[in-house]
Amino acid sequence: MNGYSGTILRVNLTTGAVTRQATDMKDAALYIGARGLADKLYIDEVDPKVDPLSPDNKLVFAPGPFTGTFAPSGGRYHVVTKGPLTDVIAGANSGGSWGPELHYAGYDALIIEGKADEPVYLWIKDDVVEIRKASHLWGKWVPDTTDLVRAETDVEAKVACIGPAGEKQVLFAAIMNEMHRAAGRGGVGAVMGSKNLKAIAVVGTKAISVARPKEFKDAVLVGRKGIKEHPVGGAGLKAYGTDVLVNILNEIGSFPVHNFQDGYSPTADKVGGETLAANQLVRAKGCFSCVISCGRVSKVKNPKYAGEGEGPEYEAAWSMGPDCGIDNLDAVTHSNHLCNEMGMDPISFGSTLACAMELFEAGLITLKETEGVDLSFGNVDAMVEMTRKTGLREGIGNKLALGSYRLANSYGHPELSMTVKKQEIPAYDPRGIQGIGLEYATCNRGGCHVKGYTIAVEVLGCGAKLDPHATLDKPYWVKLFQDLTAAIDASGGCIFGTFGMGGDNYSAMLSALTGVTYTTEDYLKAGERIWNLEKMFNIGAGMTSKDDQLPLRMTTLPIKTGPSKGELSHVPEMLPEYYKLRGWDEKGVPTQERLHELQLA
Amino acid sequence: MRFPAVSSVGCCNLLRTGLLNALWACEDTDAWLSRGQCVASTSDWIGDSMPKVLMIHPDRCTGCQNCELACSFSHENQFRPTATRIHVYSWEREGFSVPMMCQQCDSASCVKVCPTGALHRAKGTTLVEYSREKCIGCRMCTIACPFGNAVYDSVTESILKCDTCDGDPACVQFCPSQALEFVDDNISTRSRKRELAGKFKSAFEGA
């Protein structure tokens, strides 16, 4: 049972039943844990046609084997459900220390099912599990919820909760833990809200044992050394956070602005990590077991936007900044704090607002609808106000809360939504960086960068340096990154660990920890198995190859200015090769042969 | 005279006293903590080697808890939050974290109240040692320690406190941000002194 707790906890909120089952160690060996194990548990039990916000949907939280150990930056938990934003598999992971605490409490996964009659929270102290009333917490924002739950349980309890955005089922609501850490994408917080589940507080005191301690420690030290010596993992992220990417992406002309109407901004630096470090940064922060410390403890002194919190990350600084024509970092940081405190994904929010701004400038959204707010690109005060209105679903915020796909469709202009599978694509312009576009198009959870972060090789030159404008070999790299990331997610690792560690490091640590031997090939194979399992769920949910494409703008409207002027995305040309490499047919359906090979059939 | 061989130990005595006073008196805790503090000293320094102290720099702490993990693992070969001898306390609203471990006090309350001598200081050392064989599990030390740094562990049925890993603390090895350092006693306060000297400098320059 090394690396695992051996127990899966199940809480039915309809009946109040709390039950336990043994972790299936055969599944653990095949799917590792966290994302993989949660996927397996969820997909075995839930109909892919389920309405994401109905009591029939389930929500699975799972730490991985690394979670709670000193595997470098390996303290994450994963949440799996069907996403209300996307209507496909939603998997979001988060750092902080909530995941390790759940693992220490003795659980490899927590399955939430049904729906409570009234607001409740869950209090888990090792073997003692209570469903408690939470009506007095309903409506509270994330920091206050966290403090109040601690006051009623244990002052050192780790608390994952939703804010008003989750309660009101904003379709991109997040689940927050330790106040500022987010399982952010796909609307996992809205699913929690739909179940009337406000928070999960955990205290765990049990041990995670190690199969081969000396070997594990040695593998960890090798991995740590790799990260420490890496320019991004060892220095860049701590100094400037992920927001350091603003200038890097802008310099290659792949920094989308004004809802992807262009890919370059002459004033991008104003929202970059260097500016953040000089003005808003208080100190760097690390999640549990992190050796990188990309977290930004930030404070805004400008009285108009004053406050303390964390972030923004690169994608948030972009989405609520230049994608909305805004370069005021005080305001963007403030809105990022609001997103954290209300519990919603700033990527989808910012991109949805950018879409609304384009609809407004086209005269489709009227001043009457915005209650007099000028939603033109660049209106800083409007951006801040819309953040609050969206999280609380007030006025026009009630429409923004549905995401840009539903918003743009409601005005008859679906082409203005920058989404894949209804989820907003992030801050790397796929017209200037070909591989990441293929990742957006094929990612199982919809438009997303982190599940196949080819930026590492296409832009940052980590491990290899590829031409971002070229399409050659990109399907190979996308598949490789997707499979490796799935395995890292399943282990409980942070994707930033790859700034210094590779598959060899991960498989060595996992083998020594669990006692199950994984070669690097085995490790990647586990990732590929997880990817295909998710894919089969999505096919069951009704997805076809038509859903594996970028917004029309990416293939028809060239970048207008900057170093990537004239570029378009070539995803349609890369897709057949990607399907072939995956062992899928020309319609993007996994062949029986490949499923059999992956022990999925 | 407890420290017959090395006169510089007096500096550490003063510092520890200063730590206690500051903890109770200082209103601006953040500013005080950010100067870095001597909180623990270690074993046998008689001879040529300078006694070393575990320095905490809360201003550098990222709250990652790698020190706790390393501590639990090096003592128990497992990761158990209740097995660690060092604990990180975080204030999430302000994003501030402080690691806490045994201060190895000169005038140690735990040693004074221990009825069996299980907690003791060997002659000529700066480390408060613990002898499992002599311990009767009365938990008096956990009550007496003003910091809460002596903890009873029901799994091992023993008192857990920092032993500086026999002079090679695992927490220091695993701290990714140098928030924990194991340094020679006589230079442990150098950075603090320079900082305060700098304030004098500014005051004179401004005058």
Summary of the model, kept short:
The complex is a heterodimer of chains A (601) and B (207). Chain A has 24 helices and 18 strands.
Main beta sheet strand tally, sense and closure of chain A:
6 strands, mixed
Termini Cα gap of chain B: 44 Å
> Can you tell me the CATH architecture of chain B?
2-Layer Sandwich
Query: Which secondary-structure class do the elements of chain A indicate?
Result: alpha+beta
- Overall, the morphology of chain B is globular
Judging by the overall fold, what is the CATH architecture of the largest domain in chain A? 4-Layer Sandwich
What is the name of the CATH class of chain B? Alpha Beta
**CATH class term of the largest domain in chain A:** Alpha Beta
Helical content of chain B, roughly? Answer: 25-40%
| Tally of domains of chain B | 1
Strand percentage of chain A lies at 5-15%
- What share of the residues of chain A lie within helices? 25-40%
| CATH topology assignment of the largest domain in chain A | Aldehyde Ferredoxin Oxidoreductase,  A, domain 1
Described by the principal axes of the CA atoms, the overall outline of chain A is globular
Stretches with pLDDT under 50, minimum 5 residues of chain A: none
